[in-house]
Amino acid sequence: MRHGDRMDNFDPTWVKTAERPWDPPLVHNGLARAFRTGRTFRTLLPFPIHRVFVSPFLRCVQTASEVVAALCAVDDDPIAKSSSDVVSIDPSKVKVSIEYGLCEMLNRKAIRRDVAPKDGIFRFDVPQLEALLPSGTLDRSVRVYKELPQWEETVMGARTRYEQIIKALVDKYPSENLLLVTHGEGVGVSVSGFLEETAVTEVDYCAYSELRRPISCKNESFTAGNFEVLTKSGHTGITLDSFHKP
What we know:
The chain is of the alpha/beta class. The protein is built from six helices and nine strands; from the N terminus they run ααβαβααβαββββββ. Pfam families: His_Phos_1.
């Protein structure tokens, strides 16, 4: 899933005074869109989401917080528009972890050089970010990538990273349904990395893909089959284009 609507794309002047111009928050509509998407998951998916993994960028953590609030709301009030309207949640439903491997592409294609940190080091106050998540849902025990990628990683390097983290997380929790909250490129890879002769041409805010694979368990070990991409072009905010390899 991609994050919601980011501040700098709606207020171009925001970066001029921002302390962290490379890490914009969501605008109000972005928070509302994320909450609506969480409600969609809750009401339309024929299965529960057990775990959420999220990029450390603020816009993604805010998105995850809204989604999880919608998933865990005790009384699903139809007029609720964001997490601030949720009276109480059941934190036992979903566990959330921050995962560096889901972070934005750390290169100039995704982050302009004039807003990136001058020393090329992206710093995150993880405890502060974790405090934004709904109370009782945090799980600190999981982190596949212990460090962020280096600034100026290649596009292909970032795409490989996204594919690797998807596989690593689902292998770690083979019997659970996972939601990964990341960036547009990561969502694109979740389709193009597992569906041959398909390019992703557009990923809207809060767009999401859906993948599944067969799992067989025997003697406390599991065997996984290949991923099947269930996403159809235009249905969940992702536009696909087919091509034939030469």
